[in-house]
């Protein structure tokens, strides 16, 4: 089924500047998973930060109704965002904030919108990886116009999922693998290798410390490669 | 400001089959307006048609939050679709149904999702023009697998906006033109030239019968060209 | 079925001052369609106009649950206004604003509520015709107390629907006619004959330019008569 | 301020059959309080009664936005019914059901819609008094077409408010009296004088048993007169 | 069925200070009905009181999903509070405000949350009785820190339900009694015996003045006992 | 600040059968965090399992408004559950299902309601630990009445949070510790030591593999003790 090695990423492309209007943007493709990410700069900050001198980075996530194999009901039509949507956008926001100096950003907000055009597994990790690129482009724009002067980004950040499929630990699950994985874990790490977020779930039998350590190793390899692609896309 | 002739369409491309999962799809670009349309086949029909032997075609419409110059609030987050969104999706649905033989379709439903990736005026008319292509591709699929046998599509259908800008009647308004137009009208016509829908609005001063007739003439020219592009895209 | 001539309006009465509390009001009856319209003056303006010196006129529309042949669900109970309701209230608002000098109105808002007590076709056009009367009464009140000094109303405005029923173009459709019309169009015009809004829809087969021109002619005749009735009701 | 005696009702008129489409209806006017009530027959019953052979009577209540001195926000626009609205419609429903033999009604439902066209105090009690008339007319219709054969209505029911205003117990409060009343009570009684519902509230100081007894006496007198008007309106 | 006398309360306990964080709190148990009440002090007041120098006391009410015999749907999940919930929280708020000097409270608000941990009839009356204790504790705290100086509470307030069960008037209905009662009434009274609220409902046949007088007498006895328990709990 | 050892749990008590009506229940106290958990048996299953022969276990979570230091808005009043609430109830449901044989349960559903009476950190992990006890009691009831015959529970499951506070890895964070922790992780494990869920988040600086391993070790110790308390509470 899987044609590539168990420790290989799918084919990944990152296209910054895909969207005409946004201060930062990136079309990220991980295999057949395609996410359009935009970073929008707003001169207001959430009320809990007003007067603090600090800014904020937040994320929103959505899927086009037919990004999936069967059509899903449009969340705008059903009148609310699902628990899954809210969980994902909280994760993306936390992950990106982990590498942002909110004081250097100043009292303003960047909203990172991650819209899944086509889904084939790993949409939340692709959103983080591409979200970093859109965010960096937005901050680059702010620097250019003199809106920020100190470094805002403290590190790179990227994410990948790993899982145990048919007894084998594998990197970067597509939808078919994700559906059959016994254990499924998402990892978010910085460019310098620090852990930002770990989410591991036993879908079938519980997993052991050893299995978890193997997944962590695969993630470390994959995220290293993703950060290299981010640097290349941003011309660093 | 306007570099093309007052009776010229913007550059239009129609890419059928853009989406992997949908039975029909089309990426439609009219200048900087980009809409991703999918046609999803569902084996259920609205309750008011149950037992009638007839099917249904309906449309949904959405804009990515940063498809616009300033970021708009995500409708899924605000918990409801705006009046504008509902008005547009009703228009798209009516327009497409005008060329569908609902009895030949049989008791099933096609949902046409029009999601604006980038907006620069004319998103509703682009959705109708691209929606026809996605719908035709979906019906082609149904024919191929023997789900329908009689012709389902009775004609082509496409749409364009026209307006009076600085006193001059012009075809296919972009956002800048739309914002300054004194009168703004959307036209939906069939391939054989029949009128399906007319929506004309005086934004400033009322308009005259003569002005309206000029806009109708421009629309007729533009829609003829759009139908030719539809045929080409569908390989007819 | 139709006892009056194809170019005759139903019996129309306009009763200004029907409501005790409102600054302006009108009970409009077009045949068996009865709409109670009130114009409420509020000393606040929408946020997008704050500081502009300009005012606003907006409309809301509702139907009593048993205004229709079969009882409809109360929108307050279902928790949202339908797409049809929103489309209608946007149309009424646009139509009335077309004859209002928003600068002369000053930074305040008039809300025109159109509540259908009994429905028999043409509720949106009756709302516009009666809405003008309520609005004019409200502005008369504002003049009397010295709140406005310059003329606020630039012209009259009224509306009517026309359609092609059984092959014949007819003026002012009742519900039975509307349900069987092949083409159905709403026209909004000023007292001096300018076009404010045109909405034409093919319910069955597409319609031709000639048919549309015929409907436009009928509308022009009917709206002339409605404006005369408005003047009479307002004692002009 | 009050021109009539402390134990006099306001001028009351009950106009059955006011609405064209409904099986039963009544326009009830109590002074400047005007409520349009319709009774709609539906051939379905709430799920908790399915298979029981019993029917149901329920009520809904609404106020037109400008029925009041200052415009109120439309509940359909705010997306929910207020606590006050829900409390009132529960009271109306309970009161009407108190005189209905639900088994004789059969497994169907009557929905009584009470829409306040103009408010000047006592809208909930007017709704009950007029609601009985609309309900009786609806049941009369059901009898005529043979849908029910046994008597469905066990008695008449009507309602009135009383209060202590400036130290004096008075019958049938208008809005000005209601706003200044120290104690305010609504009474619902049957034609034969049985108590169906009592709701007494101290708006200022608590009230005594004696005061309450006085209000009860006034209510008994007023409801007797209202029931006589109901009989007259229904031609009994 | 009923093991205690017809004029006896169930076993009642009032435990002030049950909640760690709240300024005032009380766990009230009336037989198997258990309600956790907290009184939360907030330094804001509703907008209609801003600048008036007056404060406000309001109540909210909720039931844990499995406080009842069959699980009820969680109101937070269904997205709105039922009409019953709103009616109850309005009653609790009105009852508590009847003994509060809102001017002495100053421009701040106390929110009394009544959450039913276990239900066996009489949850709204238990909420009022326990709500007074939580409120008194909160005001005691405010006195201690000097936030209020004049007496805020003008009297005690407590509540109980009575009903006619199998022809016999009884005090303090449990769920089984409440379900079979022909007439059901809630009484709210002050410590000095003034009536604050009366809500009597005929569940089956209408009731007479005499029956109502008997229920009032029972309530007066029960509320006297409840006020004595309040004083004891508060160490007065 | 912390008076107990860095590898000590807070004082934990588990009281099964706390709620009168529910098939299973448990009051769980972890220090000042108190959660009332009920397990409700329902003879329906979600639609996606109908006909599969399998059952379902799901969880809902709520906080009383004043369970926290400052009062939180009631989710039923705000009309929706927050992203945090939904994330927590999804975690609890997944964790409990990890030890349930859904086929042995049969086509029915158990809803585990976790309502926080008082919060002092670790409410989600306490809900899982107490949820297991309520679930086990519910399944014990089902066994007793012969509703299930095969073993439904495959193992125990419990949860605890760990974190790095002031540079030191500590077990079972209270609110004050959680607010200042640099890294915060929740662990869910079975009685036999298998990992069910890991959620680790860097609140400040990213964390290392070594730090994470230390937290995992602390969790393993704590969960072992919690499972022993579960067995004791259930009399196993």
From TrEMBL, chains A, B, C, D, E, F:
Residues 9-137, 157-222 form the Exoribonuclease phosphorolytic domain. One of its GO terms (molecular function) is 3'-5'-RNA exonuclease activity. The lineage of its organism: Bacteria, Pseudomonadati, Pseudomonadota, Alphaproteobacteria, Micropepsales. The keyword Ion transport does not apply. This is Ribonuclease PH. It catalyses: tRNA(n+1) + phosphate = tRNA(n) + a ribonucleoside 5'-diphosphate. Its EC number is 2.7.7.56. Phosphate binds at residues 84, 122-124. Keywords: Nucleotidyltransferase, RNA-binding, rRNA processing, Transferase, tRNA processing, tRNA-binding. It holds the Pfam family RNase_PH_C. HAMAP family: RNase_PH.
